[in-house]
Amino acid sequence: MEERLQKILAQAGLGSRRDCEELILAGRVRVDGQVAKIGQKADPTTAKITVDGREIKPPEQKVYIALHKPRYVLTTVEPEAGDTRRTVRDLVGVPERLFPVGRLDFDSEGLVLMTNDGDLAQKLTHPSHGHEKEYRVLVARHPDQEQLDIWRRGVVLDDGYKTQPAEVRVESQAGKGMWLRVIMREGRKRQIREIGAKLNLPVVRIVRVRIGTLRLGNLKPGEWRVLTPEEVIALKGQSPRPIRRPQTAHRLPPKAMTRATSVTERKPKPAASGNTKLQQKTVKK
């Protein structure tokens, strides 16, 4: 059965549908040897579909992973040529082709959803759905009521864009600074930091703690875990049932954090072999 080309690519784990549209627009996708066009349909069971010359394989089993991205890690699968910085894909040791849903700035930390489910990525990132994202934000000064009210109503940024209303509340004092809790329904690049600069509230640290119904929980920087079936259902908006908390988190040892995009779990071997293994630890409820 024929389907939209961007849907086929998204189901194959190449990104959200919008990401896959960009691949098509860039001329990187071919169907039976011909450069593909936006809006084109194809039958994935009979057509030969390639991206950058590599044939698209049948859809993989869907994988959903919550990662606590540390600071100074790129939220992408592969960096640009010459960029040696680590990416979120370097931190997750599974063989499936995964991509991060949405963005989280290089110098920010917290929850990132990794998956190969392009339909869910589209649902969570498209502005029309307005999914909430929640952050803990440390600012260098104590905000006054006027600054908080302006942030809540919306702030006009340098490019003339006015941010949507947001929930902003004081959480706790931190020396001369203050931790704030910010809940937004949009996610422009470096938006929180720009708002802080506009309000004379320099942002020191940003930790994302929630995406829609998915929470960071007790994951520590660099740790990741597989979502429970209940969490996946809730993210898709199909069930209001309480979320069952997962039991196990994983972390790749430092030597295993390479830029390989296909890492498999191996049984422990003697240290002399030089092999690394995935470490597991119990997350307290």
Summarize the structure.
This protein has 285 residues and is an alpha+beta fold. Helix content is 17%, strand content 26%.
Structural write-up:
The protein is of the alpha+beta class and 285 residues long. It folds into three domains: 3-55, RNA-binding S4 domain (Structural Genomics Hypothetical 15.5 Kd Protein In mrcA-pckA Intergenic Region, Chain A), CATH 3.10.290.10; 64-127 and 214-256, Pseudouridine synthase I, catalytic domain, N-terminal subdomain (Alpha-Beta Plaits, 2-Layer Sandwich), CATH 3.30.70.580; 132-211, Alpha-Beta Plaits, CATH 3.30.70.1560. Helix content is 17%, strand content 26%. It is built from six helices and 17 strands. The strands form four sheets. Strands 7, 8, 9, 10, 11, 12, 13, 14 and 15 form a nine-stranded mixed beta sheet that branches. It has a four-stranded antiparallel beta sheet with strand order 3-2-5-6. Strand 5 (49-51) and strand 6 form a beta hairpin. The longest helix has 9 residues, at 17-25. The N and C termini lie far apart (46 Å). Mean pLDDT is 84; it is low at 258-285.
